[in-house]
Amino acid sequence: MAAPILMYHSVAHEPPGAARALSVSPPMFAAQLERLCELGFTAVTFSQMAAGLRGRRTLPGRAIALTFDDGYADFHTEALPVLNRLGIPATLFVTTGWLRDAGPHAAGHPLGEMLAWTQVIEAAACGVEIGAHGHSHAQLDQLPAAGLRREVTTCRALLEDRLGRAITTFACPYGYSNAKVRRELWAAGYTAACVVGNRMADPSEGPDVVPRLTIRRSTSLKRFERIISGQWLALTFLGDRTLTKSWALVRRSRFTVNGVLGRV
């Protein structure tokens, strides 16, 4: 049975320019979650959804998963209170090098105000599933083997050390993945990963790397209802899919060229 997995980022009234397009306003976010409840959807964590897609557990009727990428500070101030009020579980994929108090582990270039470690720990205590989103939010498919390994293992090690629990799920930064990335993820101990895809998650495709549906600033409540119900997805995300395919060709060519130059 195909199921929707939603991809959120920032939930904020006025997010930074770079994060605005993939943000959702707090009133719209609350309205979207309330509509999920009204329509009879039952939310599960990403790991539960992945297990259900593998046939390892039974999913509830109209199962849906909510995921949040990067680790913006507004997850704590805006998203978490709504999730708690409605009793909706979610999965937060954290970029460990972006955290506000990453200290000597700071890496990459955050696009806005990020969570602190105490807030990640508090979210986990509230029942939010914590997953990894790389350490510096690098484009994993463009990294050499050693760099790729550091990205996927460093974030897992830091999260497990702080949270005192196993981290088994991963969201690929920028939604990019290839066979090399997936092999490294499984070798690092992850059991499920997700990309973007903008289609329903279907067990017939192979559930180890599953697609998600992008929720952005321009997603109206009517469009949101169509997305979660799987209606007109090809049309709704036509522009996204065309761009994704074009970039996939560019990225494969770039990696091939870089690999050849690296051996010269």
What's the gist of this structure?
The protein is an alpha/beta fold and 264 residues long. The protein contains ten helices and eight strands. The protein is globular and about 45 Å long.
Give the SSE layout:
Blueprint: E1 5-8, H1 17-20, H2 26-38, E2 42-44, H3 46-53, E3 63-70, H4 74-86, E4 91-94, H5 117-125, E5 129-132, H6 145-163, E6 169-171, H7 179-188, E7 192-197, E8 209-214, H8 221-228, H9 233-236, H10 238-263
Parallel strand pairs: 1-3, 1-8, 2-3, 3-4, 4-5, 6-7, 7-8
Helix pairs in contact: 2-4, 2-8, 6-7
CATH architecture descriptor text = Alpha-Beta Barrel
Fraction of helical residues: 40-55%
Secondary structure tally: strands: 8
| CATH topology category name | TIM Barrel
Residue-averaged pLDDT: 89
Strand content: 5-15%
Total domains: 1
* Count of DSSP H/I helices: 10
So what's the CATH class? Alpha Beta
Main β-sheet: number of strands, strand sense, barrel status?
8 strands, parallel
The general outline is globular
What does the model show?
With 264 residues, this protein is α/β, with parallel strands linked by helices. The chain has a single domain, classed as Alpha-Beta Barrel (TIM Barrel), CATH 3.20.20. The protein contains 10 helices and 8 strands. Strands 1, 2, 3, 4, 5, 6, 7 and 8 form an 8-stranded parallel β-sheet that branches. Helix 2 crosses helix 8 and helix 6 runs parallel beside helix 7. The radius of gyration is 18 Å and the shape is globular.
